[in-house]
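ugh ok fine here u go
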Amino acid sequence: MTLTRRQAAGLNARANPLAPEIQAAYLDGANELSDFLELLRDDGAVIREAKLVLVGEGDVGKSSLLAAMCREEWNEGRSSTHGVEIKSVTVQDDGEVPLVLNGWDFGGQPQYRSTHQLHFTAPAVYAVVWNPRRGPEVSKVDYWINLIKNRVGDSARIHVVATHAEHDDRGPWIDENALADRFGPMICGFHHIDSHTGQGVDGLVAAIAATANDLPHSRRRYPRTWSRLLKAFREGKDAYLTYHDYEVRAIAEGLTATGARSLARNANALGYWIHDDSDDEHSLVIFKPDWLSKAIGRAFEAPEANAHYGLISLERLSHAWTHPPRPDEDVYPPALHPVFRHLMQKFDISYQVTPSNPHQEPEVLITQLVPSRRPPLTAWTDYEPELSTMTRYCEVVEADTGNRFIPEGFVYQLIARFHRYSLGRDDHTASVHWQNGMVLDAGRYGRALITVSDQRITIAVRAAWPSYLLDRLTGDICDHLSFWRGLAVKVFLTCGGDCPGNRAGHGRFESQAVLNSKRQGVALTPCQTCSALRNVDELMHGVTAGMDPNVNRFAAAVAEILQPQFAQATDTINRHSSAIAAKVGEEADATRAAISQAEVGYRSLIRSLDEPARNGPRLMTIAPVGQRALRRRITTVTIRVTLWCEHSRLPLHVLDGNGTTGVYDIETPRKWLVNARPWLRATSFVLRTLLPVAIGELDIALDGDARWTSLAEHLKSAEKALEASTDIVGQTGPEAGRDQDLQRVSGPNAGPGEPDQALLRTLHQILGERDPSFAGMHRVQERERYLWVHRRFAGEYEYRES
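structure:
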């Protein structure tokens, strides 16, 4: 199968069960997908492989079992695994090529569990290993199966393996029927083996191979050149190479420079290698992914980090990596240390903190080691008590049972994930966090208290307009938990003010039920705490329509911006635009509320276009060129597309200062322009509203790179372009046109004619043929999402040492 780049750009296959390397190429963009499919057609060969994951408590015999499966000699003094060991088990069966089981043996110590979950994927075969001498309860067989189910979902396939089968003695009894009934087809078999004598090992390998053969994509085509290079590096002595040296080797093996880059990205996505994919000259390709897990384990065990609740200087952290505590462990050369720190931050394990003393050695906070005791919360209780406070609850439940379940290490990961909001971002000693919560500060957008208790997450925000920060934190938490396929998140709104049941602030209303009531025209909905009826419109205050999975999020976001309430926020910002842009004086609560309201609209619009953003930018203004576009009889029109940076929220030509960067005149069907009109108007409106905020923030980011006077002139030109881009309503006039557009996306006529993501995909195809680089914009990744930014801001999304 092959696809042209235009066909690949229009493809939406995120939910399709693609082979892992095709999925990785798809997520990397239309060009990568098209190139990979072409390579697969010309150079593909059949491979058979599957991932085998061994989990269980420490010292139950996982490492000895994997060694026995690989037919290694018995090692009486084998030490416990710290981190992960990776070995391949080759199975010679009746297939045309051997089956390769890529075995991942995870250390069972509790401190590693939150990081090991990153490697639990589907499709894969899992072996839950337990020691009958300890019994199934002490070996936590039920815990490990449940952990796999919640992380991977019910598509996981599990073999339960009892070790130490001396003389075929089955030891303590395990209720196989109960486990099979509870977990259904996830449980593929129960086995009793002895790694020392080899008893039962061959039968286990055969059973696992049979399960692997039934996994999706265990047999598939893979490029021969890629397979050869993967094998060469797997069998070679190099643990890592600089990207330059890797590229030289790859080209010598027959790959092109583009193919080498694609393989490095793909192998990183599949867990074969580690590659940070930066443009830095020190970029590395690490061929031993188990090194990262072991390096993290070394950081967890560092005495300084444990003595100071996770704080450790870069010097002492490097010392831990170059001085192994056990003689049989690896020494990690200093060239790897920045990469390890970058990946630890990327995986929400740690982050670099700002020391209180500027002359102090830079430090890293390993969040898993933060204090267990809650500190004083005066930073929350004393913060602007006159402002509004809104609260939401998130209940994380098992999708099949409805039981509440908070993943292990969840709060630690949130502390790292939200470190940009930390009270200690300028001085770490001001941070407020502990094992079950944190206080966050988002400047003009307010302050938040997040706590976890009774398997429930509580998010409270105090701000002039709490909805923005509350939506953002709730959305980020839900995104983070989406990593767990066997879990679901229920978001509950709370009542405020007067409560008929005299429990103000304690009422709980499931957000989806409230949204359903609103959509069906139901005025009242019952409280789940006191059963009192509350007004749906009051509960909906600050709830974005984009939260409803049953609506077109794109159309809902457009409608949100075109509502009259948004225009009121715009008017408030415009009255204070000069002060906002120049950051002069203290912003009034009304101004902060208006900015937050505008940010809600902007975020909803951008997030609704996440899927097509993998192939091209989504922030742009568009205006027809001349009056010809307003004539009803013509079939094509000329439009002027101006690309904007999604980081600074300013046009590329303003940032470059040349007036033409990212500006294109292109031909498009008039029907496209008519259908896109609500989206174009909403985009122009929200960008124009937030221009003063963008100016103020950019003044800091530029740090003298451009003078205020020069930037102001550029922004005046951008403002005129924005005004022009709204003038596509024919003879009806701007106000009537806005009302028409609002009716199209939210009124009784909304539906088939409402805007959708296909509008942006079509534009990407046209622009991509004109300029595949999109004016040199950089596609960067912020968590799970892509952003398109001007080159000067690309570094904001890469790991930087202080």
